[in-house]
Design brief:
4 copies of one chain form a homotetramer. Chain A is built from 3 helices and 6 strands; from the N terminus they run H-H-E-E-H-E-E-E-E. With about 160 residues, chain A is an alpha+beta fold. Chain A has one domain: Thiol Ester Dehydrase, Chain A. A 6-stranded antiparallel beta sheet of chain A has the order 1-2-4-5-6-3. Chain A is globular, with a radius of gyration of 15 Å. Strand 3 of chain C pairs antiparallel with strand 3 of chain D, so a sheet runs across the interface.
Chain lengths: ~160, ~160, ~160, ~160
């Protein structure tokens, strides 16, 4: 009934190195303290330890900060399936905030659900982890774009 | 043809002080360097000067960071119309990324387009400003919720 | 990593009868020829046989028609978990169109991913079925609302 | 503050005839009784008289039917700005349902807010009209795609 999660063959065997190098250039990730945990073809995981200086007025992580890590997870899930001459740009995303983003660590997973030459569609989820407890705090549905012929955009 | 922008009467005459106090508690805003520029009933403006440490891999502001300020602008536009016993939570938002977020300053404006007892719908826009030039970089459509009877959530 | 699909206990043991009765009152479903295939707690399936008079300019089913069935599937997935004094309203949804909606039958499945007293969040998928082939044509992420104390809204 | 509505120069002087011919091929529009009211560069208006056989369980127009007309309005707003060798496809949309869709006529207006070679971003609104009263019932934010080199897709 539910579409079976897909397995993708990467076009570029060095997809992981390419994703890791691009992530290292995302200075926002470094600033907020996010780390790239896992890179598979079409699926990427990013973690963000909770930090008080990233909260909104109620002491939860700001929705925009949570969006930041799951957008990167989806974007890099898309990039992992592109050839090595493409850069990735976020076209749009939709985020539902399911529960307050509080806990020890936020774990964002982005997955490609549809590939295309130009557009890739992804879903993303963020789990808040506190000890053995995982709470689903955010769901994303996103469109990513493969940009070619733009040497100024390096990924 | 287009719905005329609405004028709203605030339920709470001290709406501006309430929004400003809540914004001051959003530590994420302080961390990224955003400032609350303008508070009107149903419309709020937040500015973010460009900072290299908030960029993605191509040197533009990370989409999630831009989302952070326009989510706060929409949320506070909603809060400005609530009574003084309500807190605001983001239910969901959708963001289209129209152009690279680069320039001197990002200016986010959130506006309420529909009020309700529990849910308020907002649109948000982010303009990138460089000297006299303004570029429309992001459009948001968002749902905000008025939460009552939760003294642990202070706004 | 991915949130495990949830099993929900219905609050109202007669959830299926209630959903089926409400579906029967959706005259739009009858007009387009959709049928309610399956009702489980938090998951509902609707099928729509292809019809030429529901197409867009390229001969595919119109995206809005596909949205119609997956919106109903998500709404009834939510209603199946509500008490018998609540009506369901769609608050908002986001739809990605992954592939042309063409085939013998469109099968829409809506699933609740988060319950709450007032708001429920759902995901929906539409598969185009032609013989043994299933193609994922549409993905939805939606917010549904439980409306109480409105005897004029009967579900 | 708010981005000024844009004026666009059409690439193809026969944009209106092209949009009208494509609309005439959307059999779903004919089936539900929608009519194309106005075509300008980057802005298109479609009306749908209320019909009982298009309602959901509470007697309002089904959200998916309302989505159908505003999706077409946005899609044709995009097509009006394309060259005469492009077809338009809906990539994704997000819809907020602001008020029950009831009244004499639903008027959907789609407007392009950002053009690009491949992707165009639109906003759409639906007003329910009953005598002199207009109620804003739906807001859409959508991405449309220009498809070239596909003679099987005629617009």
């Amino acid at each position: 009934m539910t579409p079976t999660p897909k397995r993708f063959d990467p076009r570029d065997p060095s997809y992981e190195a390419r994703v890791r190098a691009s992530f290292a250039r995302q200075r926002a990730m470094h600033t907020i303290g996010a780390r790239l945990v896992r890179v598979e073809p079409g699926e990427v995981e990013i973690e963000l330890p909770f930090r008080d200086d990233l909260t909104q007025q109620h002491g939860f992580l700001h929705a925009g900060i949570v969006t930041t890590i799951v957008d990167s997870a989806c974007g890099y899930a898309a990039l992992s399936l592109m050839d090595n001459e493409s850069a990735v740009l976020s076209v749009e995303y939709k985020v539902n905030l399911l529960a307050p983003a509080t806990g020890d660590v936020m774990r964002a997973v982005g997955r490609v659900i549809k590939t295309g030459r130009t557009l890739l569609v992804c879903t993303g989820d963020v789990m808040a982890i506190t000890g053995p407890t995982e709470t689903h705090v955010t769901a994303m549905q996103a469109t990513m774009m493969a940009v070619r012929g733009r040497p100024d955009l390096v990924d």
